[in-house]
Amino acid sequence: xxxxxxxxxxxxxxxxxxxxxxxxxxxxxxxxxxxxxxxxxxxxxxxxxxxxxxxxxxxxxxxxxxxxxxxxxxxxxxxxxxxxxxxxxxxxxxxxxxxxxxxxxxxxxxxxxxxxxxxxxxxxxxxxxxxxxxxxxxxxxxxxxxxxxxxxxxxxxxxxxxxxxxxxxxxxxxxxxxxxxxxxxxxxxxxxxxxxxxxxxxxxxxxxxxxxxxxxxxxxxxxxxxxxxxxxxxxxxxxxxxxxxxxxxxxxxxxxxxxxxxxxxxxxxxxxxxxxxxxxxxxxxxxxxxxxxxxxxxxxxxxxxxxxxxxxxxxxxxxxxxxxxxxxxxxxxxxxxxxxxxxxxxxxxxxxxxxxxxxxxxxxxxxxxxxxxxxxxxxxxxxxxxxxxxxxxx
Length: 394
Ligand code: FEO
What we know:
By secondary structure, this protein is α/β, with parallel strands linked by helices. It has helices at residues 57-66, 82-85, 88-94, 104-114, 182-196, 200-213, 229-239, 258-272, 287-296, 313-325, 345-351, 371-390, and strands at residues 4-7, 10-12, 15-17, 22-23, 27-28, 33-35, 38-41, 46-49, 74-76, 99-102, 121-123, 129-131, 136-141, 151-155, 160-164, 217-220, 245-252, 276-281, 297-303, 306-307, 310-311, 331-338, 358-359, 363-366. It is elongated, with a radius of gyration of 24 Å. The structure holds MU-OXO-diiron.
């Protein structure tokens, strides 16, 4: 495959992985993913920014060979995760004179995870510049989007910012430039939900920084390159904001339809009041949809029956995921049904201890919901309506 020139001796040398179905063995990938890598040929030195996922090494090398890349002076490791550094050990054998440029935390990671030898790594400081002759690379530490070792690389003369995982998308493409449509927007949002949402305050910081830098192009390590930087920067500003939308997320599981009846009734009542809802059946749902709904939800209502004196096991994993993703939701409630007793909501609250949500009166029903239970669900819908109204969400 002939490398595509982005601009003035800067080439895209990444790969699509159309067959990858899950990332982190957690969130399904609707569109596969790409592992982006960029070749920067200066008048004196050549650098490659990030490499590839280890199983793609052979294809990556075939492409380097096919494009006559015989010399690499610097390998920039913007982040230590193996989807970008997996080929590093083989790269160092293929290009024995190459030196890895990275930050101290990434150095530690690639030494521990990939057994890279210390003498092959040169640590660069935050803000340090390295000349390639007629091109200058500037390194900007960007911890916590999404690992502590993350950094950006800025190509000064060309005003191009390589943002590592930040602003990325699990997406494959033929056109390396973003077609800024709904499909990409949704793919990037799903990626944000899984990978960046826990670090929303840091996302807001780097959004601001990028707006001030005003780069000509944004080049992430997954997904297409943005010439229309505003598309993805504005999307991140919205997703990472502290304010949710007029949306109630209801993850639920039901065994004998009692909890489901409550969920359906509450859902109908909320919709009648002009509140949007996202129902998510945890038994056969796509965790990516759950995570994506969390980006916007102002309220979460968890529906679950009791099993052996505690929450149904199928709700536990999603509750744990919600907890670690640290969404912006401001209100939470619980509805559920039981047969003989136990601790349902107390256990769920323990799983969701990271959330800083105001609780709304939950509803626990023995067996099927009855007239007085539906009246309580009316009250729950009214409480949520009032909360959303107070926030000017409807
Ligand atoms: Fe795409 Fe955090 O690696």
